[in-house]
Every structure is written in C-alpha cells, then in structure tokens.
Design a protein that fits this description.
By secondary structure, the chain is mainly α. Helices cover 62% and strands 0% of the residues. It has a single domain, classed as ADP-ribosylglycohydrolase fold, CATH 1.10.4080. Helix 1 runs antiparallel to helix 15 and helix 12 runs antiparallel to helix 13. The longest helix has 18 residues.
Amino acid sequence: MDPKIQSGVLAAFTADALALGAHWVYDVSLIKKRYGRLDYITAPEIAPFHKGKVKGSFTHYGDQMFLLLESLSNCSGFDPDDFATQWQAMFANYRGYMDTATKKTLAKFKDGKSPKTAGSDSTDLGGAARMVPLALFYADAPQIFIEYADLQTAMTHNHPQVRESARFFAAAAIEALKGADPVALLKAALKGLPEDAAISRLVVQGLDSVNAKTEQAISNFGQMCETQAALPGTIHLIAKYPDDLETALIENIMAGGDSSARGILCAFILGICNGMDAIPARWLDDMRETGRIRAMAGM
C-alpha cells in the first residue's frame, strides 16, 4: 500500500481521537478555560455527547471509519453488503452517541431497504469523512475510489452535497498522490466537479478565507456538522496550514463545533501531502487503536 495513503489514513484517525475531548463544544471560551490550547488527546470531559468514552477512543464518526477499515481488511476490498451488516450490528448495542442520520438509516434497514436505498437525508459532512480507509485499497484506481466513496456515503447520508463532498475529497487525495501542493490539489479537484455541483461555492469560500484567523473563519462559516458550514471550514484548514498538520488540527479543535468531520478530512489530505513524520508521536501513543490501524493498513 502507498505510504502516503497510509499516513493520510493514520492522520485521519488521529484527528478524530484528538477531537473527542471537545467535540461539539460550541463555546470556544469553555475549551480555552478548561484546556488552554488543546494540543493533546484527552477524555471527553466537557463533551456531553460522548460521556462514557475514554481517552484515545473515537467519536461515533471515527468508530464508523474504523468499522469500514475492518470490513475492507476482512473482505480484501469494499463489500457494501458486509459493511452494511457490520454497521447495523455495531449500532445494535452501541454505547456512544447515535446521531439522526444513524437512527433514520437504521429504521430504513429495518423496513427492508438495501445499502443503496437506506440513506438518510442528512447534510452532515461526517458521512463523507468516513470514506477515508477506501484509499488504502483503491487510490490506484481513481474512478473506483471515487465511486466507492460516493456509495459508502450514500448508505447513511443520501444527500447530494454530502455525496459530492465524498467524491471531491477522493479526487483531492488522488491529486495529492501526484505531488500537488494542498492548495493546488484543492483547485484541481474543484475543476473536476460537475458544473452544477452545489459544493463548488463552498470550496471557493474556504479557499478565499485563507488569510483569516481560523477561529473567526470557522465561526463565520458555522461550527455545525452540516456540509454548508463544515466543508468550507475544512478547506480553510487545508489551505491555511499546508505544511503543518499539527497546527491545523489544533486550530480546528480550538474553533469548536464539529471538529471531528473537519479534522478527519483535513488530516487525510495533509497527511498524504506531509507524510508520517507530520503526525505527532504523542498522539499516536495515546490513540487506543494505533496498533490495529497500522496492522490493517499494512504499515
């Protein structure tokens, strides 16, 4: 497997583990008061939606991303039916947070819908972020990678903006593998979007915000989960910190809100561009599943 993709995938998981401590805390003053500058992995002491999680574990986004990696590893590739079966089994006894997209999708599966028809109408970017592990198996087959990124997203988030986002970041990862710098690869992936793509404007907004302070930029876009807010925030992080994965992820946390979805996709792209050495060793040491991720990713 490509070492650049391996570093991108590992970075994405690390971003989610880092986000857990303050995920969905929208009051940035509360994060600063409790932690100062949150540059380390911690238990979700002030993140009410993740009570019961421990230091180094994942949010519900990361748990689903890890499940996808397990399914890919067990099946030697993407099997939508296996992933759907394992996904339903995980949430049958899940002790973490279950968002609206998950509840709606579970209800549709219960009504007999297939993985292609069970998706909710959620606009949350987290559905697209989950696709990251697919790159390990399909980065050398761009069209298949993009197709599967779309398909896995639609299983739970069957909304055009979320599906377009998944395809966009798959295309951006492919550009990153060609050696393009982060801003150039984002622009290349933007050119590849359909003319009527709803997310084009959001990508441009993120690129245009590069000179703004991150906390203010993300506040302006919105700290929320919805693609309308989270996508330009993610683009901002990639474009503003092209050579500094660590700072990008810390600033992401300090901006509050849905730092997991933004962080996963930002780390995926910057991890590919900057390599394994860009991921702080202390974060890898504190992430509970580092060893298993490395094993399944062939590291």
